[in-house]
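Case study 2.
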Amino acid sequence: MIWEVFRQEKQGDYHTHCGNVHAPDREMAKQFAAIQHGRRKPTNSLWVVPKEEVGEIDADDVAFGGTTDKGYRWATSYNPDVDHAEEVVESEGQQAEAEKQRGDA
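Prediction:
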């Protein structure tokens, strides 16, 4: 039987998947997990779960984050080649002129 192992490095951290172990029962799986996944890195706790009990929900099952496009929230959607608004360009010019005047004073 395959058991999935999740490791928590420090108390209060999230548990993250670190691998799996093959064991006939829960107690052996916990022992194997402690040996294989708990010794190599700092570990606060391990979760050992039968693989069949791990459920998956993917994008085919549900629309994550709703249906509204919110790509503007991510820097990856910023396109520097698009013309900027006139006010922004004017403001940049005014700021540069103000800095120049402060430097001359």
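Residues 49 and 66 are 30 Å apart (CA to CA).
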